[in-house]
Amino acid sequence: QQQVKQSPQSLIVQKGGISIINCAYENTAFDYFPWYQQFPGKGPALLIAIRPDVSEKKEGRFTISFNKSAKQFSLHIMDSQPGDSATYFCAASMNSGGYQKVTFGTGTKLQVIP
Amino acid sequence: SAVISQKPSRDICQRGTSLTIQCQVDSQVTMMFWYRQQPGQSLTLIATANQGSEATYESGFVIDKFPISRPNLTFSTLTVSNMSPEDSSIYLCSAWRGGYTFGSGTRLTVV
Fold first, then answer.
1. Closest Cα in chain A, distance from residue B90 (Å)
2. pLDDT tens digits, residue range B63-97?
3. CA A67 → CA A5, B21, B47, distances in Å?
4. B chain contacts of residue A99, beta-carbon cutoff 8 Å
5. What's phi and psi for B88, nearest 5 deg?
6. Alpha carbons A8 and B91: distance in angstroms, whole number
């Protein structure tokens, strides 16, 4: 019940295209859904996050779509750029004694080709 | 959000030896975490470290193998003890301060 399933494992997108990464969860106790971006040799960095009372959140070229009834959420990267090439992790977390205990997806390696 | 300095960034170690990884946070944080990440894989939580108390280890990780210190609210260390090639991985520290911040990781190779 603690798993977060993420797909695809890898993704190649042309510059200017839309990158879409999907995640699904089982545990309805999760109440916060962040996405992390990780470049080689670096730690993951928070990209964008959403709470389940919102169906969509947009920040620049990055949009999270959230479907509470289906227990699914996705990251859309519009106008994908070569600089977006990185590994993306979805995550789901729940409150656990004053902090958010987080479960990470398996990651998607995105390559944006010129 | 907090900024974390982690060192060393990489090391090559002989089997049977130990390596201590250090993480320094630029502000006081209650919760710090240690993760392991196999290349190309997701993050696996090793343990949660609160200042002034024993670390809490996840299933499959034990204190004798991965002792953790948390002497104050800005610093933590993880030791990988009696290393074997199976311990080759990336080790990441993280801190919770209204959100998660990660260090840049330590790439460990055991030969």
1. 9
2. 999 999 999 999 999 999 999 999 999 999 999 88
3. 15, 40, 31
4. 30-31, 96
5. -60, 120
6. 24
